[in-house]
Amino acid sequence: MNALVALCHFCELHGPRTLFCTEAVHPPSPSPPQPGSAIPGDRDREADREGEGLTMRANSSATQRADMCEGCRSLPASHPGFVSVDSETGIRYLSHQHPRQPQLFSVVRQACVRSLSCEVCPGREGPIFFGDEQHGFVFSHTFFIKDSLARGFQRWYSIVVVAMDRIYLINSWPFLLRHLRQTIQSLQDTALKVFDNEQCVCPQRAVRMNSAFSPAVFPHQRSGNAARSLTSLTQHSNLWASLHSSFSWLLKACGSRLTEKLLEGAPTEDTLVLIERQTEQEEEMSGWDCAEGGGSNPQPSQSESVQPKDFQFDDGRQEDLLGPKFKSLRHLRQVLGANDFRQLAWHVLMGNQVIWRGADPGLIQSAFNVLKALLPVGCVRAVSYSPHYEEAYRCNFLGLSPDVPIPAHVSSSEFSMLVDVLNVERGCVNPVSDDDILSLYQFNISSANTQPTDKGPTLLNKIEVALSNENLSVEVVSLCLLCLKEEWMNKVKVLFKFSKVDGRGKEDTQKVLALLGATGPGEEDNVRLLKFWMTGLSKLYKSHLMTAVRGGERTLTQ
After folding, report:
1. Edge-first strand listing for the sheet containing 416-423
2. Of 159, 278, 412, 483, whose CB is crowded by the most CB atoms within 10 A?
């Protein structure tokens, strides 16, 4: 991640100061050496020495202008700093009191001053975002550290993340907020213990109330109280090494969690829904961290999501599943048979709840993985293996253990389908391959639905034509299915805009259905499919349509 993390402090004598800074130095791109030019290693070392010399000159000039107290200093001038090297990418993470390059020194200095003066959130403690194209964009989190000798018994600090990419920094807000709060909470808890011990030995509030106030003595009292370092406040001997590890990990993890992809055209609805779900998941985890923020020893969480137990198989990959498994829709069709597969696919496309009950969660998960390909991502709600029944509003794919009973209102409903996976009892025969699922299991399919499934929807008819064509490989069938889903998602968008946003009548809607090719044989199934797939549209697309319509209404009114 092309960013920089810095810890800043508001000194009572010298104002905002940068205490500690961690930056990522990327390895130079290899280039053929020119005759008479220095070798890359020498050139890098010379650049490092030049940057360090400029930084030291900048620091020394700043020191000459105003002497630094203990509260303004983290590492002594003779300290070489901290260095960590990422063996995978070759990126070096360098930490010292000030940035290595003089250009970054002024950028970080300005971010430090703004974070501890004018750019402050309500309450003076919390996150805020500011910046511009010239000086970079800043994610800042201000906080207080307890100090028994300070005014108000606390000192003001901030952690700033500086980057030139505004969009990237905004998209990383939930991730940065969650992990910076853990670092801040750890510092505050450690300092609070020191503060309580000092108050027990010598309560400063009583000392201050009993001491005589004199204007001549007041500046000297402030001067004595100001010179107290963060190491002294926390009694943490390896504080700066610990912060170097935290900041280095933060830069690496934040840089690897978001990657750029080349999209041919506008992003699909599936892509938009996945982005929205990831954002919601990060916000939920951030909320959990806020609710559990009172713990004294926060544990470092992973950069990826943590799922509830009932959803632990939802994102499982096919290659990670052990034992027998379905490899593709064609394989599932071959195992179940053409008639049972069509009935199963019909229920999936109509949005009915599909329940698989058996003792092998891996097999059930593989079935859900291939069946999910029939639907847009926004229409998939799966609980892959649960010890109890889940209602249809929670999931349309449900895996159950074999001893879980199905409620009567579900088994008698035409909007659900049950697939019982039974183990086949075999005598003393030769071992069977995992690919031979029919020799291991028997599948009993049941549903209270009496509506014929042989007419429609049109999408299912086209899918079955592709699956039954043995000349088409599995990869070609997958691409064909992707194109068919995009075609029908476009029809869903037109119908949503026409019926939901514009509020047209039934006759006009029927004309649009005819124009979309959804009338004729299987018309009822086509309409039902389109209405169900409307639930899979992204919130971004829906809000965009509603905003455009309201904007048009205001224009007509004016």
Report:
1. 382-386, 397-400, 353-357, 416-423, 441-446
2. 159
Q: Of the candidates 55, 69, 130, which has an alpha carbon nearest to the alpha carbon of residue 99?
A: 55
Length of the chain: 558
Q: What three-state secondary structure class fits 472?
A: coil
Q: Where are the beta strands (DSSP E) in 97-238?
A: 126-132, 136-146, 154-163
Residues of the chain with pLDDT under 50: 35-66, 219-220, 222-224, 293-316, 428, 431, 434, 553-558
Task: For the chain, list the domains and their CATH numbers.
Answer: 3-27+70-209+228-256 (no CATH), 329-426+435-453 (3.40.50.12430), 474-553 (no CATH)
Containing H/E element for 279? helix 269-291
Which pLDDT score is estimated for 309?
34
Residue the block writes with tokens 């349309």 = 396
Which residues neighbour 248 within 8 Å (Cβ) at sequence distance 6 or greater? 22, 84, 93, 95
CB-CB contact of 16 with 113 (8 Å): yes
How high is the pLDDT of residue 522?
74
Q: What is the pLDDT of residue 464?
A: 92
Q: What is the pLDDT of residue 87?
A: 85
Please name the amino acid found at residue 112: C
3-state secondary structure of 478: helix
User: What burial letters (b/e) apply to 506-537, b meaning 16+ CB within 10 Å?
Assistant: eeeeeebbeebebbeebbebbbbbbebbbebb
Question: What pTM was estimated for this model as a whole?
Answer: 0.55
Query: Residue 143: its pLDDT value, please?
Result: 92
Helix (H, G, I), strand (E, B) or coil at 317: coil
Instruction: Measure the CA dihedral 342/348/352/355, to 10°.
Output: 90
Return the residue matching tokens 């007041």: 218
Find, among 159, 178, 7, the residue nearest to 95 by Cα. 7
Residue 98 amino acid letter:
H
CA pair distance 477, 507, nearest whole angstrom: 37
**Ramachandran category for residue 503: left, alpha or beta (phi over 0 → left; psi -120 to 50 → alpha):** left
* Euclidean distance between CA atoms 314 and 37, whole angstroms: 56
User: What's the rounded Cα separation, in Å, for the pair 231 and 510?
Assistant: 73
Give the residue carrying structure tokens 């649960």.
386
- Of 454, 460, 482, give the one whose Cα is nearest residue 376: 482
> Terminus-to-terminus CA distance in the chain, angstroms?
48
How many whole angstroms separate alpha carbon 250 and alpha carbon 5? 9
